Amino acid sequence: MKTFKDREGREWTVDVTLDSIARVYDLCGVKLTDLADVKLPADSLVFRLLDDPLLQFKMLHALLLPEMRAKGIEPEDFGRAMAGEPIDQATTAVLGAVVDFFPSQRDRDRMKKALATVNRWMETTRTALESPAIQQRMERKLQEALSTLIDSDSNSAEPSGSAPPDEPSES
Questions:
Q1: pTM surpassing 0.70?
Q2: What is the C-alpha to C-alpha distance for residues 21 and 15, in angstroms, rounded to an integer?
Q3: Sequence-separated (6 or more) residues with CB below 8 Å from residue 83
Q4: Mean pLDDT, the chain, as a whole number?
Q5: Cα dist. 93→11, 25, 56 in Å?
Q6: Under a CB-based contact definition with an 8 Å cutoff, are residues 31 and 21 in contact?
Q7: What is the DSSP code string of 105-121?
């Protein structure tokens, strides 16, 4: 079991069991055990989870639903208490609890290595995005993409002599 605190200081316990895995699947359509699948980063559930705060919230809601009910806390109140650092802490707790769920030490070790790789990749990306040189290259690429879009849009304009779709043509 892993714990984290929300912005209100309430402590939450993430316990991944067969029951909670089934609940997450039923409520979110996500198989928590897919977090162990090592795929290309963009295809993995880990990256979907890290990239989608709404998915994070839905999964947390499903995982913590019994605890929310026991504490008398509505999902909306929980959602309001989840912003900033608590989201990161909750995600870390979920990932850690999923690792702990696997019965085989070999599987737990493999998943820990996969998560360590994801964390290094995310940190490398964050560091790179802070670099002025990377920011300038990204700005150039964005400008090039916009120019391409503008050029292709102006090239696909209506041929001269045809009336715009919302104006009647003169006969």
A1: no
A2: 10
A3: 7
A4: 82
A5: 12, 18, 12
A6: yes
A7: HHHHHHHHHHHHHHHHH
